[in-house]
Amino acid sequence: MSPLSNVLAADPALPPTGSRRRALADGLRDALPIMMAYVPIAMTFGVLCVSHGLPWLLTVFISVWVYAGGAQFMLVGLAMSGASMLSTVITVLLVNLRHVLYGTALGPSFAAWREPAKWLFAFGMTDEVFAVSSGRGFAEPPVPWRQIPFALACYASWVGGTVVGGWIGQVVPSSVAEVLGFALPALFIALLALGPRSLPHLAAAMLGAAVAICAHLLQLGNLAVIVGALAGAAGGWGWETWRDRHRGGDEASSSPHDTHP
Amino acid sequence: MESTLWIETLCIGIGTYLMRSVSLTLGSRLRWPEGVRRWLSFVTPAVLGALIGQAVLLQGNQLVPPLHNPALWATLPTVAIAWWSRHLLATVAVGVACFAIASAIAPAA
Known about the structure:
The structure holds two protein chains of two kinds. By secondary structure, chain A is mainly alpha-helical. Chain A folds into two domains: 3-180, no CATH class; 196-261, no CATH class. Chain A contains 13 helices and no strands. Chain B is built from five helices and two strands, in the order αααββαα.
């Protein structure tokens, strides 16, 4: 038995082989849209790095080791602008602080998992993997045989895209690389549309954007995303709480992940 | 710069992994109160909003003038596609195509 199937077998309610295969297929199907978005974005990352003079090996290592899209672009940008080592590390980690909230949010639905499986899945918990996992994770509990292949497939597409992007980075004109840079905000927009669609959730996004922009204009730098996120989440939560209180008890049973068209 | 970037990458990778793993393993042991869980459901849209807002409207710490902001113009059709298609790749593909067109029509200053 390979170490991977050992970890997967740690599922406390070990499913029979047939449903295990079905879970694996479900996991890969979940991964497909993310992989199709990751490959071009990771290629963009590879192209950007190599066309700006970074060695191919370092470029690929960043994707293998960090595996966080926004943070990687930010890391390379800061390093090229000559920011100090300490401020670069702190800044990028601050932006990644949102992963603490992801783990905290997903954690309860992983309570039945064994530790090694949790620690393996945690490596692959990116924004997109979180968005997809939390979209269904609260409705049906996550199964290792579905969740871990899902996370690994996304990771493989990210590393693969970077490898290829690093190769073609030497020949791609910088104007093309610049246009590809819009892939990242487009991905964030797509994730927003995939998430909960109630008015308070959309208000949280708008407020998050407005506060982050104000914080930038006030020179808060990379703290701005954190400040905007906390303010937006508090605003959306406050609205929903207020609305439910005014509508009375009939809304109390609605889960926070309900989508209102 | 290269050796510095290797070290920065190592530190950021370890830090990011610890944030992901420790929060997941702790989060699976502690039962958070309903109010906290509700609040957490708003964190993702708020983070995404903040990231989109700064990516689309800012250059450095400055607002980009709308007429010279192809990202802003590309965002409008991208939002429409994202909303109706609910499809990651379609949204990214249309978004990049619109950004290429907008960059040609209203180039950045």
